Amino acid sequence: MIIQSLLDTDLYKFTMMQAVLHQYPGAIVQYRFKCRTQGIDLARYLDEINAEIDHLCSLRFSREELEYMRRLRFVKPDFVDFLGLFHLDRKYIELRASQAVPGEIELDITGPWLHTIMFEVPLLAIINEVWFRNTASTDFSEGERRLQAKTALLRDTPGFEECRIADYGTRRRYSRQWHGTMLPMLRDALGPQFVGTSNVYFARMYGMTPHGTMAHEYLQAFQALGPRLLDSQVAALESWAREYRGDLGIALADVVGLDAFLRDFDAYFCKLFDGVRHDSGDPFSWGDRMLAHFKANRTDPTSKILVFSDGLNIEKVMQLFDYFRGRCQVAFGVGTHLTNDLGPTPLNIVIKMVRCNGQPVAKLSDSPGKSMCDDPGYLAYLRQVFQVPVPEGE
């Protein structure tokens, strides 16, 4: 079966889950799946996907896995105790073939946030792997050749010795086997240039550093949980600070667009958080604006980290590193370009939170086509509240 451990997910699922346990254990949410790649017939593999989900919901954390989690400095003992009782419950998933679009599948996850937050990453990994094992070869030789070329470029180009990358590609991976194969290859080829992985299972297996803080869903949920919509980002960031007290200090900047984020990310947050993560829009102009914002708020940009994670390849990593070198600290999370570059075209699939406590929530991306909401009226209202214009292409 594809998922062999509940640790086989991104670290930020655990960090968000801990905050949910302590602050919003009664929140009810809904997630929805979307395949943005046209002409993909996933419905024919519905039985196979269902079997994988059944297996996923049978898994429990082992004693050794719980002890590993307990050793992470930011994980609290009561959260590990909760994980010892936790399992994913199939009753929260609705999966069916679409009646409207032949070949498409409809996947909804609805239930307590605390008990559904862990579904997203393994479900995407399952759907990806089911698709590729039925439509492509399992020969990894082309992937290994491409990976060697990438690591040689980063390792052997003068001036890039301090460039650091991490693997962020669990949900986008070609297969679990390839993921487990390429990580030690990256480590051995890049040495200190490779700083770890977002995948907790492989971090434990290979003695790597797990990476991750918060995802879009955390800030989206506060559109329903916060005191008022306009203050939702501030409420989310303050909630995070209460939970981690200065640890895990990378904020996510693109949930309602950069302009609105900068209005909320005042001098207090500039000094409190270690840095900011980019995940949509032009990364160069985004970084320029973030550094100018730090300066305007009497914060030394060289003390802050800009984390780039939006559709990166090694060439873009090197361009960004060269552009921001010396002006701040930079870090890179590379996903599909590492875990699903073996020849076949990767799928563009996502699972996004669309409701919290019965209210619609949404992300207003800085990139056209990345916004996702099931309520056009709410989306228009969200744009109005945060003064976000409709981008070209939507």
UniProtKB/TrEMBL annotation:
The keyword DNA repair does not apply. The keyword Ligase applies. Residues 163-389 form the Nicotinate/nicotinamide phosphoribosyltransferase domain. This is Nicotinate phosphoribosyltransferase. Pfam families: NAPRTase, NAPRTase_N. Pathway: Cofactor biosynthesis; NAD(+) biosynthesis; nicotinate D-ribonucleotide from nicotinate: step 1/1. The gene is pncB. Signal peptide: none annotated. It comes from Stenotrophomonas humi. GO terms for molecular function: glycosyltransferase activity; nicotinate phosphoribosyltransferase activity. Belongs to the NAPRTase family.
